[in-house]
């Protein structure tokens, strides 16, 4: 056990035969003396598994995943992290003008002594992380001058440079166009195929249907549902979760039958007869 933060334990356990990377039990959180944001959450994420966290705005998705990542101390319960966890925040901003390479090298902070410069091993890890997400060609670009999709990939590379075996991402594809959504989802899917445990929040149930093995729904603080994505994400459940009619028909795209999410916005086009 390397460190303990209240009830949250960080426990790299290389000798364990369990493939459970993140193990949360009885997790509850409230800000100060406010209302519970969520309570009694139990979940496990295995190596190579993707967990999507869905719920309407302000239901506590960010709060939950920051507890899982160890950035926030839960009010109740415990999270056991058996591997290093990399966190990818929602914000794409950078406080100063950094190159892409220097952004990714920040992920090496825990390996670099105070006032020391990154060494060859750090540069090697940063290059491997850039390569892993397919953006080696951007390494000398100014991070602030990149598009939202490119920045998202840089932040994933920065997390990978930590040597993490679990990745927790807050809305990794929310601000991206369709092609960049596919690109980020493809990277996460490939990382999971290589054994990474992936947790991501999303406002896109179809992203969960594409890549998530498990989904966690925050219906309200006392009603948290965790289950197999394809079983949990029915039209009826999504309609009730988001408060509008949602259909989930099977369609064939590119020769592949896929369940898609079609919300009824309740608006009739003016040119419709
Ligand atoms: N530091 C804080 N102090 C007090 N309340 C907070 C704090 N941070 C978040 N909250 C509140 O906790 C609730 C959950 O916030 P959180 O950001 O976790 O929700 P979310 O589901 O990620 O929201 P969104 O989908 O809009 O990003 C919200 O009501 C929010 O206002």
Automatic annotation (TrEMBL):
Q: Which SUPFAM superfamilies match?
A: P-loop containing nucleoside triphosphate hydrolases (SSF52540)
Against PROSITE patterns, the record matches this protein to: ABC_TRANSPORTER_1, ABC_TRANSPORTER_2
Q: Which Pfam families match?
A: ABC_tran
List the Gene3D superfamilies: P-loop containing nucleotide triphosphate hydrolases
Q: Which InterPro entries does UniProt cross-reference here?
A: AAA+_ATPase, ABC_transporter-like_ATP-bd, ABC_transporter-like_CS, Metal_Ion_Import_ABC, P-loop_NTPase
Q: Taking every annotated instance into account, which residue ranges of this chain make up the domain ABC transporter?
A: 22-245
Task: List UniProt keywords, sorted A-Z.
Answer: ATP-binding, Nucleotide-binding, Transport
Q: Name one GO molecular function term.
A: ATP binding
Q: Of which family is this protein a member?
A: Belongs to the ABC transporter superfamily.
Provide the protein name: Abc transporter
Q: Which organism is it from?
A: Actinomyces glycerinitolerans
Its taxonomic path starts at: Bacteria, Bacillati, Actinomycetota, Actinomycetes, Actinomycetales
């Amino acid at each position: 056990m390397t460190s303990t933060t209240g009830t949250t334990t960080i426990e790299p356990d290389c000798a364990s035969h369990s493939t459970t990377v993140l193990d949360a039990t009885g997790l509850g959180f409230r800000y100060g003396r406010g209302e519970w944001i969520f309570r009694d959450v139990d979940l496990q994420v295995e190596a190579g598994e993707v967990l999507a966290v869905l719920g309407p705005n302000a239901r506590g998705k960010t709060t939950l995943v920051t507890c899982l990542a160890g950035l926030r101390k839960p009010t109740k319960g415990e999270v056991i992290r058996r591997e290093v966890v990399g966190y990818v925040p929602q914000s794409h901003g950078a406080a100063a003008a950094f190159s892409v390479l220097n952004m990714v090298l920040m992920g090496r902070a825990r390996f670099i002594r105070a006032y020391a410069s990154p060494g060859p091993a750090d540069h090697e890890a940063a290059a491997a992380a850039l390569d892993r997400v397919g953006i080696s060609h951007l390494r000398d670009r100014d991070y602030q001058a990149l598009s939202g999709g490119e920045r998202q990939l840089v932040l994933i590379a920065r997390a990978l440079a930590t040597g993490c075996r679990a990745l927790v991402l807050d809305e990794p594809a929310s601000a991206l166009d369709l092609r960049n959504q596919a690109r980020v989802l493809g990277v996460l899917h490939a990382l999971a195929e290589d054994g990474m445990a992936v947790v991501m929040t999303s406002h896109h149930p179809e992203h969960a249907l594409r890549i998530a093995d498990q989904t966690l729904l925050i219906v309200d603080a006392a009603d948290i549902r965790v289950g197999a994505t394809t079983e949990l994400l029915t039209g009826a459940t999504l309609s009730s979760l988001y408060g509008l009619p949602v259909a989930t028909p099977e369609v064939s795209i590119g020769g592949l039958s896929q369940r898609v999410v079609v919300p009824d916005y309740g608006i009739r086009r003016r040119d419709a007869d």
